[in-house]
Every structure is written in C-alpha cells, then in structure tokens.
Design brief:
The chain is built from 5 helices and 8 strands, in the order E-E-H-E-E-H-E-E-H-E-E-H-H. The strands form 3 sheets. The protein has a 4-stranded antiparallel sheet. The chain has a two-stranded antiparallel sheet with strand order 1-2. A two-stranded antiparallel sheet has the order 7-8. It has 176 residues and is an alpha+beta fold.
C-alpha cells in the first residue's frame, strides 16, 4: 500500500503525517512518492552570518530533550536558525517549498531551553485563540490577535539580508 506525504508535523514537531491511500492507487502514488518527496534542512546562523548545518535527526533528538544531545558552544545563547523545507525529485533537492527563520534558545548546558518554547507556544495560542473572537460588538472591534501576531513576529522571527538568504538557499540546495 502506498503512502502519500502530507504537509505538517505531529504535535511533537518531529515526524511527518502520512495518509494511507486506496491499494488500487498505490502504484501511481508510489511512483510519485519515489520521484517526489520532501526533505528538511536546519542551519544555525552565527553572529557573523556563518552557517552551521544541524542534521535533522540531531535537531529532532534535541526537541525531544534527549539528555545526550547538546551543543556546548551555544550554551546560554539565543541563536538564529533557518528551517528549510525542500522538494526532492529522485532524491535530489529541486526547489525550496518554505523557509522559516526563527530563534533557538539554549540553556547553560547547550540544550534547547524549553521555557522559551513554552513562552512561544503561549503566544501562538493567544494568536489562535483570539482569531475566534474577531466578532464585533456594536462599535467594539477585537484586535488582540493582531497585537499578539506582531509580538510573535518581533520576538520569535527574523529576516535575513539578501546575501545571507542566498547563502542559505545555496546550502539547502547543495550548491554551496
């Protein structure tokens, strides 16, 4: 039976969701899956805009708080990182589907600081929760989600300069 890769992460942000397809369609879909799939690249960005590739499996283990996984060189720091989603054709990077520019905070041992993750999650819930309250009551308009989204962008996202973005694209596509 063939599997079709769907976009999105499970709640632990470590593995992709799959949809089981009808066996009659499995041949066509398995050929599609063999030829086209997705891959992820993670890059830590230094203060001097240097790139350090972080293997996805190691990043996943760090997100799962594996006690063996740490980056002592980043202990106590807040580091810019880029998470790049690639489309693969015949197992080769073809194009970039999406890039997320965020920050990773590390504790004193060089492990991911989950208190920062919790703060980020609370702010995301504030954005999502207030989307339900876009209603109007007379002359009152609820705009809390706009302020929460702006705070989220200001605190947890960054924008690369054109040179750095080009370097990330080249590294992600394997051209660097």
């Amino acid at each position: 039976m063939g599997n079709l890769l769907l976009y999105g992460f499970e709640s632990d942000c470590s593995s992709l969701n799959y949809l089981i397809i009808d066996p009659l369609e499995s041949y066509v879909l398995s050929e599609l899956q063999r030829k086209m799939s997705e891959a992820f690249r993670v890059f830590l960005i230094g203060d001097d805009d240097s790139l350090r590739s972080l293997p996805l499996r190691r990043y996943e283990r760090m997100l799962k708080a594996d006690p063996k996984e740490c980056l002592p060189g980043y202990a106590g720091k807040r580091v810019r990182y880029a998470l790049v989603v690639l489309e693969l054709v015949n197992r080769k990077p073809e194009k970039i589907i999406q890039t997320q520019y965020s920050y990773l905070s590390f504790d004193a041992e060089g492990k991911i600081d989950f208190t920062e993750f919790e703060k980020q999650a609370r702010l995301v819930m504030e954005v999502v929760g207030s989307l339900d309250s876009k209603q109007k009551h007379g002359r009152i308009i609820f705009v809390g989600h706009r302020f929460a989204r702006k705070r989220f962008q200001d605190l947890y996202r960054w924008t690369p300069n054109p040179e750095l973005e080009a370097a990330i694209v080249e590294a992600a596509l394997g051209k660097a």
